[in-house]
Prior knowledge:
Layout: H1 2-45, H2 49-78, H3 82-108, E1 132-133, H4 139-149, E2 153-156, H5 163-178, E3 186-187, E4 195-196, E5 200-205, E6 210-213, E7 216-219, E8 221-222, H6 244-249, H7 253-281, E9 298-304, E10 314-316, E11 322-329, E12 340-347, H8 364-367, E13 379-384, E14 394-398, E15 403-407, H9 411-414, E16 415-420, E17 426-433, H10 442-453, H11 457-463, H12 478-513, H13 516-521, H14 527-556, H15 567-591, H16 626-645, H17 647-656, H18 666-679, H19 683-690, H20 693-702
Parallel strand pairs: 1-14, 5-8
Antiparallel strand pairs: 2-15, 3-4, 5-9, 6-7, 9-17, 10-11, 11-16, 12-15, 12-17, 13-14, 13-16
Amino acid sequence: HHEKEKMGKKRSAKKRKTPSVVDHNVDHNRLEHKKKRQKLENNSTGVKDSGSDNTKNETEKKNKSKFVKQKQLQSAKTKKTPSTSSNEQKQQHQQQTASLASRLKKLRGTAASTPPPPEWSGVGKRVPQKMFLTPNDDGDDFKSCHEECYKGFHWEEPKNLPQSLHTSFESSFHDLNDSGLFLYDIVQPGRKRLSRTYVTRTLVGCPGSTYRYLGLRLFSHPWCDVAENGDALVGGNKNDKEGSSLIKLGYSQKCASSLLQIGNINTTLITRTNSVLKERISPMVKPRGLVGSADYTLTLINRMEPTSIKRDLKNENLFGLGKTSVSWHKDSGLQDFSSIAVYHTILQDEGNNRYDRDYEYDNKSLKNGKGSQNNTPWRVALRVAGENNAKTPALAVPLPGGSLYYLLDDFNHTREHAVLSGSNQLRYSSTHRVAREGCGTWQYIRDKCDSVLSSCRYIIMSASSTAVPEKRDSKVKESDLSTAKRKKMMVKEVRAHQQLITEIEFEWLRQWCIQGQRHARLHPFWHRPIERLQESYKQLERFSLIAIRILKDSSMTVEKKTPGVSEDIFDVMIEGIEERMRLRVAWHERLQDPIFASLPPETQPFNCPVLDRTTTDKKCEMTEDLHGLINNLRKWRSSFVNQKEGNFGRDKATIASGGQENSSSPIRKKKKNNAKHSSSLTKKEQRKVASNWKNMLSIMGKN
């Protein structure tokens, strides 16, 4: 036994030794092979110098050819149409702004969640409540209140700005006024009675941009050359002069050059704002350096007449600040944490023919330098919004003509500003802003129309009774899969079309027509976009008629029932048409306001060809009687649901069996009437009825 153990140990030792010997031999062979390769390489390199030169030249040629090919590929990529390159730039800009917006929302919140500024430390010490401070009368108090509560407000005096900026602004203001672009707006503040603005204004910005405030959408004039599709023209033809595309649209040479000049000024203001943000705001925010955008996309240019001409200006009663041309407000429709830059200039006299063209005023007082006895300067007023405004005093800052002031970062979230009227001088101001992206532009509504109108294949195929090809699945029958998918897709298509037709009508076409023929004539850029929106509206109407016909046929008999039709499609149509009917009633009341009758004929609302029709073509146009259409849809829905649940068949079977169920009993009649009534209601309405919604509302109203 001991001998066997010894023999086993010897064998295991031999096995351990053999791999090490083999590994040693393999490593030795590898080293020898490497040495041979090095010798061969040394010999080959030392043969001839000319050979090495030739190989170097060949490699250089190959590298050059690769470099040339890469350059050709890059040039081929860059040689695109101006519209496509502009689209790529827009996509990159949107990605950058989206990333900035998401970071701001994540780390700093939103405009609604921004905390108010701290209460001024001097409250109750020197200044009583409902008072205001000025830099001339309240030097130290004004300075401390400005630093504590209004730190986002900053201004630059005229002497600190380049002379070229003053010259460009003033010449642009004069040329835009000579072109007649300044108009009054009829707005609806607080959804109350309509009123006319005290100032005339015009909107200039990126091609296709708009600005919506107080129930009115302003359409902009482009500040750069535009392509045929309405996008900004990047590059363009070298032979075309700058502004030639605007002249082709219908702008005069003088007007086109002034619009381009405003665009160039906007670029300058972007640079200046970013430097001010970096110096004054970035070190103070948390996280450090995360400030809002200053890439201005539009500017609202105001023309304000003094109190010596505008006799009907309102007083500011909260702080006793005097007459106001623009009352307290926050600028709406802007990106959160975005900055605002305002340049204003004050003129002694523009000439008698440059004042209000539609209304007569006494211009002699301004022309002769006479007016009210006191020479009140134009001022910018600031106050804290919300409950803290009663404790923190307002500021009234008189700024000389040619000043540039900023509302930086989150200033517009928690503070309001106003413009206090001067007594004898005319004021122009250009307010540069960063509008919200994703809606409110021609590019947005154009692309939405193209997307929605190109995705209606399920409804069209259902109308033509053709099957939609589906992928086969061994677990689910092809017919079941097709019907299930059709139900979802048809509801999605009908909802998208009804939402779009409502948006086009009330956010674009009616907003365009309510501002009058003069407004339409002065905005030649928008002529083609409005025509395209009218064409899209007609196509959406034809689609709605197809969907209504499918719903009607599906409610008749089981044989005519279209696969994929469900109660959800009835609900979407009913809700969409009811919303459109409600908005039409509101617009009809708006147009009946007596203010429009007092306007000159050219500035009164005009009829839209596709909306205000005297006769309708039933084959391709929807009826104007939306109330009757809704009633029909409810009847068809009730019939469709009863067929689906088999109520009709059950009633026939009951009668044929000799009336085992007493259909004449009051309980049976009540159940039938309730079922019939509920089947005509949408699912949302049924949920409200089921929870005694109306009874709760009536009880709450009584209390």
